Amino acid sequence: MEGQRVQTIASQSKDDDILNMFVRAENEQPGMTTIHGVNLEVPIIDFTNPDEEKVVHEIAEACRDWGIFLIVNHEIPDDVISKLRSVGKEFFELPQKEKETIAKIEGSNSIEGYGTKLQKEVDGKKGWVDHLFHIVWPPSSVNHNIWPKNPPSYRLVSEEYCRHLRGVVDKLLQSMSLGLGLEENELKEKQDEMIHLLKINYYPRCPFPDMVLGVPPHTDMSYITVLVPNHVQGLQASRKGDWYNVNHISNALIVHVGDQMEILSNGKYKAVCHRTIVNKDNTRISWPVFLEPKPECEVGPHPKLVDQDNPPKYKTKKFKDYAYCKLNKIPQ
Ligand SMILES: O=C(O)CCC(=O)C(=O)O
Ligand SMILES: [Fe+2]
């Protein structure tokens, strides 16, 4: 096991030394660094808009100018989302011993399983969050041994959500492809080389939310990430050097452009820098699905998007090498 879980610390610890491991330097503390009183009104895309050309244009513009947007009317039924939220919450509310049966094995290369620490920690400061990771697609990459056995409906519910999500992802990739001037199905067809990785972030209530972070500032390593949170706001994005709360719409999907999409588009689409804050009164939970290349897959600027006037801005490398450098904070 990789040390104490934040959930355990949150429910038990009054020890200043332990709590100090979470308190950030002032220039990182959300209380000091958030622009208060305004939300970042990121683009909202309506998937039922009959003007499909307009939707493509809006998505491309959002990827270029924001790297983050919300999708409303996405056709994932509300009850599918609410069941996903229930089973995830139920898993994290199980006795600690039961959760540890699917804990990530320390030193293993796999990211899958129940865990706490993720990236190399700057200044040894810890994020106020535990998580669960498991691959949900394609079936050949899925290891059900790592999925929670409890609640018993966990698997069925998660599979149902992920099936619906694939429809959303297809539409997103088609629009992003067109927005780059590629054929409609060019990115969608790359899905053979991709995995869908579900994460659940569990942010327990925190007695001093202004001084700690959930997930520290980062861009996602994925091509794109599609996320649903519970009812508790906590996602912040950086815009022109300032941190803002992102507008929260219940049951909207939040899309992040990740590093691989920025690389593939040779910088035309921008990965969004984001972080999360925690809450004094409420537990926050979020369910991102990361669309990532398979480890051996090479990612670099798309050949059709580079020429003499637009030389490649990024190296082409295997995703596993990219991920190793990123997680260990080694320059790419
Ligand atoms: O909880 C959230 O809203 C975002 C979490 C996140 O950025 C991540 O897990 O990469
Ligand atoms: Fe993220």
Key features of this structure:
single chain, 332 residues, alpha+beta, Jelly Rolls, eight-stranded mixed sheet, globular, binds 2-oxoglutaric acid, binds fe (ii) ion, IPNS-like_sf, flavonoid biosynthesis, Plant_2OG-oxidoreductases
How would you describe this protein?
- The protein has a single domain, classed as B-lactam Antibiotic, Isopenicillin N Synthase, Chain (Jelly Rolls, Sandwich), CATH 2.60.120.330.
- Helix content is 29%, strand content 22%.
- It has 10 helices and 14 strands.
- The protein has an 8-stranded mixed beta sheet. Strands 1-9-8-11 form a 4-stranded mixed beta sheet. Strands 13-14 form a two-stranded antiparallel ribbon.
- α5 (78-92) packs across α7.
- Bound molecules: 2-oxoglutaric acid and fe (ii) ion (FE2).
- Fe (ii) ion (FE2) binds next to loops.
- It holds the Pfam family 2OG-FeII_Oxy.
- GO terms for molecular function: dioxygenase activity; L-ascorbic acid binding; metal ion binding.
- This is Fe2OG dioxygenase domain-containing protein.
